[in-house]
């Protein structure tokens, strides 16, 4: 991109914090984007606040946003729709989706920055009918907030990055999706999203999510396909993230519907800090949840404190692996204090030997008849001892092709539980 810089104030855009000049500012903004291209870098300066109709970016451009952009009332569309490669959006400013003034609903696309979405059904975005791959889309530094749906959703992107952004107070997960290749979501802060913090969705390949902080969402980082009909998500690295205080799973590989094949493949999950996830106490959720997956490495993660924060709630798992997955390695993780003394209780024993087991007490690692699975060299612990929250270090059903070996339990397991509740081989 060009080393020359031009302010939008010099191209007809005026400060408009009260939404008076929407049409004129939108026209000036679109003309500036069209004329900038490789000629100059466009600057939205600090202190400039505008309300804009939905904008399409149809040519390569470098846009620095240091001020504030609001989506104008009743647009029911995305702030920026990208229809070109070589688009660079950076800065220290804010894109505000003005969510309360948009109606949303089925068939609407109400995002912050999006590409290659044609429409939506009742649960998820749908691919463009004739998608075009956009190379080198780079978004960095900015804050995107108060968006009805996705702060960022890039379909068919290649060699693209989302770096150092803050994504918050919005309705849907930010995503790389629909065969995104070679893309990275790194060093971002995500919180207060009603959906998952970030998702690799339907056919993402050779992508990363590294060194992000994600909290107070319905989930942390997901590798997901909701309908089981797309190409697998594969060759994905999830590393060094700080994921905590989410109502659902911290990291999950999931496929919706009735699926009997392995839709998430060759994913590395390592070196992440995950704690206090599954605060809703949903049975089977926790910090790492693996379903319908193959060739997954879960190594060196620090996991603790998952479980319901209310008086109700079911069993949490630090790591869960389902029966449809295979060739899974769960090694050298440190997992402690999983679960909560919540839910209904069953009393055992009498007198000084009496104890209760609660439905909310948890398990460090649960293997659900998973074939070709290695559970080895993990450290599990329960800091409170007999009155602790973790009922089992390792639990589930072991099949002949899987191995449990070399795991260690520190501390005293909760009354009625055991460090390893299934046979080892």
Overview of this protein structure:
The structure is a single chain. This protein is mainly beta and 425 residues long. The protein is built from one helix and 46 strands. The strands form six sheets. A 14-stranded parallel sheet has the order 1-2-5-8-14-18-21-24-27-30-33-36-41-44. The chain is elongated, with a radius of gyration of 24 Å.
Low-confidence stretches: none
Question: Residue share in helices?
Answer: under 10%
The amount of beta strand, in percent, is over 45%
| Overall pLDDT level | 92
Straight-line N-to-C gap: 59 Å
Q: Strand order, main sheet: write it out.
A: 1-2-5-8-14-18-21-24-27-30-33-36-41-44
Count of helical regions = 1
Give the CA-based shape: elongated
**Backbone structural class:** mainly beta
Q: Mind telling me the C-alpha Rg?
A: 24 Å
- What summary fits the major beta sheet? 14 strands, parallel
- According to DSSP, the number of beta strands is 46
Q: What is the fold's blueprint, element by element?
A:
Blueprint: E1 5-7, H1 22-36, E2 41-44, E3 49-52, E4 55-57, E5 61-65, E6 68-71, E7 80-82, E8 87-90, E9 94-96, E10 113-115, E11 117-120, E12 125-127, E13 134-135, E14 137-140, E15 143-145, E16 152-155, E17 157-158, E18 161-163, E19 166-170, E20 174-177, E21 184-186, E22 189-193, E23 196-201, E24 205-210, E25 213-215, E26 219-225, E27 233-239, E28 242-244, E29 251-255, E30 264-270, E31 273-275, E32 286-290, E33 293-299, E34 302-304, E35 317-321, E36 326-331, E37 334-336, E38 345-348, E39 355-358, E40 362-368, E41 373-376, E42 379-382, E43 390-397, E44 403-405, E45 408-411, E46 418-420
Parallel strand pairs: 1-2, 2-5, 3-6, 4-7, 5-8, 6-9, 7-10, 8-14, 9-15, 10-16, 13-17, 14-18, 15-19, 16-20, 18-21, 19-22, 20-23, 21-24, 22-25, 23-26, 24-27, 25-28, 26-29, 27-30, 28-31, 29-32, 30-33, 31-34, 32-35, 33-36, 34-37, 35-40, 36-41, 37-42, 40-43, 41-44, 42-45, 43-46
Antiparallel strand pairs: 11-12, 38-39
């Amino acid at each position: 991109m060009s080393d020359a810089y031009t302010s939008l104030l010099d191209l007809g855009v005026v400060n408009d914090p009260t939404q008076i000049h929407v049409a004129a500012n939108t026209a000036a903004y679109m003309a500036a984007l069209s004329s900038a291209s490789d000629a100059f870098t466009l600057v939205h300066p600090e202190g400039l606040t505008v309300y804009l109709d939905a904008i399409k970016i149809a040519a390569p451009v470098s846009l620095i946003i240091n001020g504030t952009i609001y989506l104008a009332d009743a647009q029911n569309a995305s702030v920026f729709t990208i229809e070109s490669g070589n688009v660079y959006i950076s800065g220290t400013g804010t894109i505000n989706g003005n969510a309360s003034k948009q109606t949303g609903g089925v068939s609407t696309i109400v995002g912050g920055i999006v590409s290659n979405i044609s429409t939506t059904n009742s649960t998820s975005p749908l691919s463009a009918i004739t998608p075009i791959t956009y190379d080198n889309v780079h978004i960095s530094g900015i804050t995107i907030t108060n968006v009805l749906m996705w702060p960022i959703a890039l379909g068919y992107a290649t060699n693209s990055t989302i770096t150092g952004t803050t994504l918050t107070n919005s309705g849907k997960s930010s995503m790389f999706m629909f065969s995104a290749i070679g893309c990275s979501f790194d060093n971002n802060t995500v919180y207060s999203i009603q959906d998952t913090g970030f998702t690799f969705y339907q056919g993402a390949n050779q992508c990363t999510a590294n060194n992000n902080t994600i909290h107070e969402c319905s989930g942390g980082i997901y590798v997901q396909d909701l309908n089981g009909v797309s190409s697998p998500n594969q060759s994905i690295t999830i590393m060094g993230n700080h994921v905590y205080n989410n109502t659902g799973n911290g990291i999950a590989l999931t496929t919706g519907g009735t699926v009997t094949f392995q839709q998430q493949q060759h994913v590395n999950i390592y070196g992440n800090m995950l704690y206090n996830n599954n605060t809703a106490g949903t049975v089977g959720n926790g910090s790492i949840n693996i379903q319908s997956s193959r060739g997954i490495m879960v190594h060196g993660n620090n996991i603790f404190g998952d479980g319901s924060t209310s008086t109700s709630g079911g069993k949490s798992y630090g790591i869960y692996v389902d029966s449809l997955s295979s060739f899974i390695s769960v090694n050298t993780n440190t997992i402690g204090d999983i679960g909560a003394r919540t839910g209904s209780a069953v009393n055992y024993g009498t007198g000084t030997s009496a104890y209760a087991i609660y439905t909310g007490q948890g398990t460090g690692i649960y293997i659900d008849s998973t074939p070709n699975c290695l559970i080895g060299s993990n450290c599990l612990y329960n800091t409170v001892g007999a009155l602790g929250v973790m009922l089992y270090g390792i639990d589930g059903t072991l099949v002949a092709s899987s191995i449990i070996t070399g795991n260690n339990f520190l501390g005293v397991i909760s009354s009625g539980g055991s460090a390893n509740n299934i046979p080892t081989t």
